[in-house]
Design goal:
This protein is mainly alpha-helical and about 90 residues long. The chain contains 4 helices and no strands.
Length: about 90
């Protein structure tokens, strides 16, 4: 995935790398949040393993599990069935 960022001329190499890295992280996180890429793809793009990405994204306030009411109800029902109880 190629992400281009226009930064001011004259930045030190350190400042440039820091800003470019932060912009890349923000762009990938936004793509994940908007359901444009999967959690696994986002982790891969940022060079993280899946668990590290999930922890980092959650710390940024992004929901890792994004279920609507119907999906959530279905997941709860499945979990209850596996546990051997009814709602």
């Amino acid at each position: 995935m190629k992400i281009e960022v226009n930064l001011p001329v004259g930045l030190s190499e350190r400042a440039y790398r820091s800003a470019a890295g932060a912009a890349r992280k923000a762009a990938v996180l936004r793509l994940f949040e908007e359901h444009a890429i999967s959690c696994g793809r986002a982790a891969q793009e940022l060079g993280m393993d899946l668990e590290d990405f999930m922890t980092w994204a959650s710390a940024q306030g992004v929901a890792i599990l994004q279920l609507d009411d119907e999906d959530l109800s279905s997941e709860v029902q499945s979990a209850l069935e596996v546990a051997g109880s009814d709602p």
